[in-house]
Amino acid sequence: MMKNKSKILLPALLLVAISGCSSMFDSVINCEMAIRNKVLSQKAWGHWSWCYENLDYPYHFAKGFKAGYTDVLDGGSGCQPTLPPQCYWKPAYQSPEGRSKTNSWFDGFSHGALAAEQDGYGDLGEIPISPTARANIQSAQQRPTPQTYTDGFATGQPLAPITLPPSMNDETLEAVPMLPDGDFDLPAPPIGNPTQAPPVRPYE
Asked: Whole-model pTM?
């Protein structure tokens, strides 16, 4: 009986251990990236702060600058957020001076994001893909838009329905000779773009 329980508990413990290790690994990576981004934003402010010496609220501008710089390092777009940090929601900032400090933070955020782009960190958070996958994606993006083939002609849209003139009625149509039934070797409409290069495959 004990052997049967151990056979059931051992795989369960292994699954728990594996999931725990994966979660711990992700936490370590997130912590490492957060420390790196904080250090880089601090160094960037030390490098660019001389441009903003005559500001009314340099402390709040610096906080926004570092936040915008960090946003780009994290893979963000660098656009200003809708709301400032929660520390600016306090009653102390619900005044004309407090709003000016909040606006200074927003201004610093935009300048920090721009500085990160200028420092070459715009794609720091992107994971590179293989050259083969990149070539296949570019080839797929260059494919022409699907065409509608009507009567052997490639057109962007289906042909409009034919409207008969008033002089033609059912009796006139019955007088028109019809072609005999049978199979006809009509050329098939072209499919795709014959000049398009095939997808790139590894080791070719």
From this structure: 0.55
- Identity of the residue numbered 129: I
| Beta-strand runs (E) in the chain | 148-150, 153-155
Residue-by-residue pLDDT tens, the chain, 204 positions: 545 555 555 555 555 455 556 676 678 788 888 898 899 999 999 999 888 888 899 999 999 999 999 999 988 888 999 999 999 999 999 999 999 999 999 999 999 999 999 888 877 767 778 888 878 888 888 876 555 545 445 555 555 555 656 665 555 555 555 555 555 455 555 555 555 556 555 544
Nearest to 89 by CA among 79, 80, 101, 107: 101
Widest CA span of the chain, in angstroms? 97
Give the C-alpha separation, 20 to 190, whole Å: 56
How many Å apart are CA 66 and CA 27, to the nearest integer? Answer: 22
Question: 116: Cβ–Cβ under 8 A, 6 or more apart, which residues?
Answer: 44, 68, 69, 71, 72, 73, 78, 122
The pair phi, psi for residue 73, each rounded to 5°, is -65, -30
Name residues whose C-beta falls within 8 Å of residue 111's C-beta, 6 or more positions apart in sequence: 48, 52, 61, 64, 65, 68
Cβ proximity of 65 and 93 under 8 Å: no
| Tally of CB atoms within 10 A around 156 | 8
